Amino acid sequence: MSFSLPKSPLLSPMSPIMEDVLSDSNSVITSDEPLSPTLQPQRKFSVYKTKPTTQLSLSVPSTKAYSSSSAGSSVKSFNAISNLLDSSINGENRSKESSVDDYLTKIMNRSNSASSTDNEYLTFCKGFIDNKNNKKRNFSSEPESDMSLDFDARNESIDSDSSIECKMSNGHLDMPAIPIDEEYSGYRRKYGHEDPQSVTWSRHRKHFFILSSSGKPIYTRYGDESRISSYMGVIQAIISFFVDAEDSLRCINAGNHKFVFLLKGPLYLVAVSRTNESESQLREQLNYLYNQILSVLTSTQLTKIYEQRMNFDLRILLGGTEPFLDKLANSMSDEPGFMLGSIQCVRMSKELRDKVGNILQIDLLYAMLITNYKLITLLRLKKHSLHSADLHLVFNMVNGSSTFRSVESWTPICLPKFNNKGFLHAYVCYITANVCLLLISPDKDKFFELSDAKNTIVEQLTACDALQGIEAASKSEGYSIADIGVAGLRHFIYKSKTCLQYTSPAFLASYNNPREKRRLFKLYRYTHDRMHSRVRPLKVHYYVSPSETILGWITATFELYAAFGPLISKTALTNSSLVLLKWIKKEEENLFIMNSPVF
Amino acid sequence: MSNNSRQSISESPARAGGESNNLQSQNNLKPVQVKLVLLGEAAVGKSSLVLRFVNNDFQENKEPTIGAAFLTQKCRLEDKVIKFEIWDTAGQERFHSLAPMYYRNAQAAVVVYDVTKSQSLEKAKSWVKELQRQANPNIVIALAGNKIDLVQPEEGEEESPESGRQVPTDEAKAYAAEAGLLFFETSAKKGDGVRDVFTEIAKKIPLELMMSPRPRQIVNGGPSPLPGLPRVNGQNPGQSSGCSC
């Protein structure tokens, strides 16, 4: 890969700023080229590969990983195409005289179209890895640099990398005038308009990308997926390089970043994270995202679509699903339920729960009352238990959209663990401000029947005062650690393996600010990962950090993760844990749904 | 076929006016149920129109509807009480195949487009075609161009050509007249024209024809999950029009 300075007569009276920008971008390219091990002996890259059939994991932690895995050569093979593309695009650029805005748009379009793949890869990696560098550059250059000169340079240069430099050197251009594509939904996502080449975009701690096996963008957690199609192309190229060798790429570790790949037939899912989550945890999260897609399409439909047209733009069919994928991506970061493969119930007295359960008796597949990601009660048809992964999808759907709040809704939903080939139909209605009634039936014409059933249910719940009871229970933050009265205990998560449910007190006192909460959660995640490591799973894990002592304890019936102060002695910790377990045993019937009632 | 249905739609108000006099005295207390469906491209403001009509409310940046939402709203028209049972459908492509379930028995449909997106009018036209081909032949269809607040000029100014409007009023109006639709331009955000859509629909539907046969339906069909809706509309408009001839 070579970088040549644009030799344009327009550039001869080069402004100092321009010079700075160009020389800088030049240096960036040589110093940050991750594909060439010779230039970068100090950077550590390891590629984990595995044969899908044998499940053997081969780790190549040396600096020569890239040359041996020959990802570099795969990129090289794109040079020819990209050069071709570049020249054609460049030609087009020259032929038209345009305003500054047009230029910007073109530059963006060009770097968005799958043009210089190799350089894009640089950008891609650099965006994540070399954050600091970018920031420095951003601050060192003048916000109001000579724009016209920059654009002339763009006109001649075919390096999309430096177009970023240009944009960055113009602080006020951070949000360029690009026509925003709102074709699929009028809903504006929080991060939907973030510029994929800005520092704010690459600074996000965890990215998710979904693309089709032909490289078409489907979803990105941040920014607009159509504007990162070039990254998607690179991801597709890297993956298909390994696919060609009948191998599958699982994970790339690059500095603090992990790139985790999940290949599901026609869909590729990628997580790029610097959150210290383990590969298997990230892959689990990708699985949840995949299930979310199945829940709106079913696997039958998905396979059929791609059998008929390999390069189908799935966004046409997924339109309106982005808020759910966003919501899911967010809640996976702070809901332990996803990591533990279990769900949480509202703590309420067994009598009340039973009373509500009796009222909910209707002839159905599933009926449930839920509130803010917590289950109040669930009724099911005999022999049809509901998998926690499906429940997470249901929770995510109900909480992911405000449109359910004021109306009665009727929507098809596929629960992949129940049956990934067909749709069920869900009746969703909030019966109080916080409590949502969900009735699931396989029959698509049952809406009015269920609507009538809802009226009966609400009447009966009101008649026996249960409605107020559950509304109160749903409003409360949950129980506090003080209620339990265990010395030294700060917080805990207890998962009952028999019920596949977990319980956890409200985040109080020191953990009620988001940063502390995230830190604690990180410790839980670390402990969880250590205990579930495939190589050497642990039964007990004791870990002292500067601020907490974390105990992890797994038996045949439960998993316990408990946080204590950093100075607690081991005996005190053991005693406290035993007291905690005793309390949970005593409260078991209120904390968990022990026997889910059946119709 | 489509010609016939169009004619019967345009004739119906006259007939309704003629017959209502002798029927209204006995029926004015009981609400008349009108099943209405909203169709149109994603993000044109279907849910916002309903929200304005039902709750007189507006939400910025509303999430897309999932599946379909069901709402009811009662309103008075002259001396009758009308209960609108509204199916607000999702505009996304993947829900298209479910639409017949909602318009199958509807007496009225509001097909919504966005005046700032010409493409949404094309989608609206295809919905109208589908309705005229497959829905109840007497269905009253209204075409509503939403989001006019985005193109409305400031006080005293002429509407400038670069106001963002992509669908001129005249063009849509001409289409509506040709296809036999009611036509409105609305703003769910400001509330302009929203009530008119529903009032005009109510006026155009031959209400008394729907009121009289209700007891018969219970005799025929026994308890129905959709009170007054599914069977009545399939049969009665046809029968009653036969009577009036």
From TrEMBL, chain A:
One of its GO terms (cellular component) is fungal-type vacuole membrane. InterPro entries: FUZ/MON1/HPS1_longin_1, FUZ/MON1/HPS1_longin_2, FUZ/MON1/HPS1_longin_3, Longin-like_dom_sf, Mon1. The keyword Transport applies. It is a peripheral membrane protein. Residues 488-588 form the FUZ/MON1/HPS1 third Longin domain. It is found in: Endosome, Multivesicular body membrane; Prevacuolar compartment membrane; Vacuole membrane. One of its GO terms (biological process) is vesicle-mediated transport. Keywords: Autophagy, Endosome, Membrane, Protein transport, Transport, Vacuole. It comes from the Eukaryota. PANTHER family: SAND PROTEIN-RELATED (PTHR13027), VACUOLAR FUSION PROTEIN MON1 HOMOLOG (PTHR13027:SF7). Belongs to the MON1/SAND family. This is Vacuolar fusion protein MON1. It comes from Funneliformis mosseae (Endomycorrhizal fungus).
From TrEMBL, chain B:
GO terms for molecular function: GTP binding; GTPase activity. This is 10892_t:CDS:1. Residues 1-25, 214-245 are annotated as: Disordered. It holds the Pfam family Ras. It comes from Funneliformis mosseae (Endomycorrhizal fungus). Residues 1-11, 233-245 have a biased composition (Polar residues). InterPro entries: P-loop_NTPase, Small_GTP-bd, Small_GTPase. It comes from the Eukaryota. Keywords: Nucleotide-binding.
